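User: Let's play a game. I give you a shape written as tokens, and you guess the letters that built it. Ready? Here's round one.
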């Protein structure tokens, strides 16, 4: 079966420094794939190439057989590719509900005239968006926080809210960039349970970057390891955990620190 996502020999440089050096990997439909590595290994750069934030990479990225080369970020999002961010990108002053309504409004079929004249279709679409946003809030266990400003929520709930916002796009492919960042062990365990439920309920394919090995080992089917912009290992979690090259990459970073 052809992969849903395939990166083929991706190179990306910044000022002569190679952030990615010939990275290739495949993500199968329905799979949860981990992309791990020390700080500066190129993980977020890879995400930014996939989503079009960094369009000037060399190589090819195929999604459902289609080369993404000439597509802008919003066009890739319309192909049902959604992501979260390492640094939370919520609108702190807006309520949790309004944070979910924003992507629904951005990708709605309503026109300016309909909004101005309050045409029946516009009212119907707005009501449908409200119902969808509230249903997602309930699903991610934030139903009681609908009117709470996003900036007033604890970090763990903000992480959930960002996942909920991504789900509003009805993605086929969900990219999670450090979803456990800032969470304690209990919150990370809750996140793992949520991600398993989300994957099953929405029939998602997931690519996740994180430093929390407990989370990665728990939810991923396979793992690729990046170090200095290159893939140094690939395999199931139990194989990666004991790989000497992977251990050296992480221990080397710890020693430098």
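Assistant: Ready! My guess for every position:
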């Amino acid at each position: 079966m052809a992969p849903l996502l395939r990166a083929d020999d991706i190179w990306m440089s910044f000022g002569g420094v190679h952030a990615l050096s010939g990275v290739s990997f495949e993500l199968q439909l329905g799979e949860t794939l981990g992309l791990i590595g020390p700080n500066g290994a190129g993980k977020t750069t890879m995400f930014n190439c996939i989503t079009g934030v960094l369009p000037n990479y060399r190589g090819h990225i195929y999604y459902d057989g289609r080369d993404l080369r000439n597509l802008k970020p919003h066009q890739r999002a319309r192909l049902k590719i959604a992501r979260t961010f390492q640094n939370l990108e919520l609108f702190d002053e807006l309520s949790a509900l309004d944070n979910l309504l924003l992507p629904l409004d951005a990708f709605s079929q309503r026109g300016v005239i309909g909004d101005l004249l309050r045409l029946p279709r516009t009212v119907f679409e707005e009501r449908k968006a409200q119902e969808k946003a509230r249903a997602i809030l309930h699903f991610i266990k934030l139903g009681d926080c609908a009117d709470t400003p996003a900036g007033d929520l604890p970090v763990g709930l903000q992480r959930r809210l960002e996942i909920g916002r991504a789900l509003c796009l009805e993605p086929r492919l969900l990219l999670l960039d450090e979803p456990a960042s800032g969470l304690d062990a209990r919150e990370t365990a809750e996140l793992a349970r949520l991600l398993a439920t989300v994957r099953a309920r929405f029939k998602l394919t997931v690519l996740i970057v994180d430093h929390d090995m407990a989370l990665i080992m728990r939810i991923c089917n396979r793992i690729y390891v990046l170090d200095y912009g290159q893939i140094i290992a690939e395999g199931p979690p139990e194989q990666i955990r004991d790989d000497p090259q992977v251990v050296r990459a992480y221990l080397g970073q710890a020693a430098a620190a």
